[in-house]
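Example record used in the benchmark description.
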Amino acid sequence: MMLKSVSLRRNYDTENRGFCSTLTVNAGDIDLQASLTDDTSFTLPTLETLSVEKPGSFAIDYDLPNKDVRFQFTKKVNVLEKPLNLTYTHTKSENKTALNGTLELNSAHKLSADYAFDFGNCKLKYSYANGGMTLEPSYDFEKKSLDLTMSQRIDGDFIGASYKMSSKVLGLEWSTNCKFNQNLRYKITALLNLEKGVRIPKLSAESTWDF
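Model output (structure tokens):
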């Protein structure tokens, strides 16, 4: 097994006041991943999940605290000469099964649908991309809610905004590469619940280092 790359992601959010670290090792066609959490005290970090993934084929996640396993399988097929990406996900302990299908109409337009077999819920999403800008409206049939996501890439920076009408939560995201080290990337997100009025948003800061 040959190691091709290693990535370390470190995240901190103001709500839980704790850190989450994810170590990803690329070993050829397989990615190995481990996630750990720790609070701001001097306690040892806790190993949360172990994952093995072959991108575009399958992923297996093991939740250590809950002793739960999550399986995910992906497959690409052609429908009317258009690529259709299918993703099947099953969580063992909760016995939840979901199927996602994304149809690529062309380089700018995509249609996707999510169906949860346990609740019979369906979500539809349309994606439009042009010149670094992406617009994604979606509809949740169970919540009868229309959500909207917009993003723009500018000179390597990513700026995104989302709004969930059912919960009235506004999300903002900004990420950029470090000016002094292109292998280091930063991301800051903010979630604001507009239903509760103007309050301090939930903030999250993340750094990703590839080496």
